[in-house]
Amino acid sequence: MSFFKSTVGGSTWTLLNTAIVTVFQLVVFAVLARYLDKTDFGIVAITNIIMAFCLVFSEIGLGPALVYKKDITKVHVTTAFYSMIMFSILVYVIVFFFSGMISQFFSNDDSLVWIIRVASISLVFNGFSVTSISLLQKNIQFKQIFFVEVLAYLFGYLTPGIYLAINGYGVWAIIVAQLSTAFLRFVIGFAMVRHSLVFDFGLPEFRSLFKFGSGLTLTQILTRACYQLDKVIVGKVLGQTTLGIYERIGKIVMMPSTIVNKVLHTVLFSTVSKIQDDKEKVGEYYKYSVAIVAAFMIPLSLFFIIVTEDIVAILLGDNWSEAVFPLQILFSAISMRALGGISDAYSKALGVVYSNAYRKFIFLLAIVVCVFMGSYYGLVGAVIAVDISITINFLLMVSLIGRVTGRSLFSYLLRA
Hints:
The protein has 17 helices and no strands. It has helices spanning 3-35, 38-59, 62-68, 74-106, 111-119, 121-138, 142-166, 171-193, 203-238, 240-273, 279-306, 308-315, 324-331, 334-350, 353-375, 378-405, 409-415. Helix 2 (38-59) crosses helix 6, helix 6 runs parallel beside helix 8 and helix 13 packs parallel to helix 16. It is mostly helical. It is globular, with a radius of gyration of 21 Å.
């Protein structure tokens, strides 16, 4: 199958997948905002920060390594599968015993300890599911991934999440929904692939996967830090209630760029990996990718800025009016978020994970410094700082792809 057909076919199924899941998310979003208070969302934000970092350590990049590596054997698959299970269990045990310390850092609420411990079980479920999803991606089987994600979210998140929220379970409605989604993703994903479960661990195979995975893990750690430390800073400087507002508007603003990134990042990583040695061709495809995404996202950004009040009223309700202006500011940079995301996909496919990690470290410094300074000017100052940092990240990534493919940064920005 040609690059074009693979990309279009994969993008179609991934777009359909993302569109349906996004509709489900909007339904859940609107219901939860009316049954949970802002402090509950602040607690969820804290657990999501922890989960985001722990997922990186539990996967250690072995899933994407299966996609990236051109030739894999059954031993590669079983080695990756059991390695991620062992690492996910290890990370869960660490989180379990350090949950008290983590809770004290964010809040004096003792209930947060058990919320963190229960939510962390999803790490183990994820450890079981990554191999199946990665093999589907490698084989460009995005139709199967569509069914995995849609069914897991429908029966794992939407149904129990809404039911528990309406019946007064508060923050536990979200925690239980996250756990059931992670479990169903494993069950349905494995049913689609049915890879070998025989314990066949190969040290050479582990090393070959870990060589790529370790660099990607470092990149992901820094990336997660970039997108989570802003919440830590906002929570510490502006308080848990403001963090709850920031977390909600952050979820909203991520939806458009997440749709684009999930569609293109997932598909481009799989397809570009297959032509990774042809740098000139990769450079041409990257130029077209930047142009297409920019042409779509910039007008969309302007549209969202105009209708922000309506978005807040529909998704959050009438008592969230203070979220309108900060959300408009965040909407102004959604094109930069999307372009940075597809650039990450190309860098992974080209194997330059350590160079990407270096740039993510610069991005992290920008986030910490800008958001810390901006938070002292309130929530508006914090979101302006985030937009500036997101733009810096995009420019760093364009320069990286340009260096690898032999093109200058300006050739991409001007010719695209």
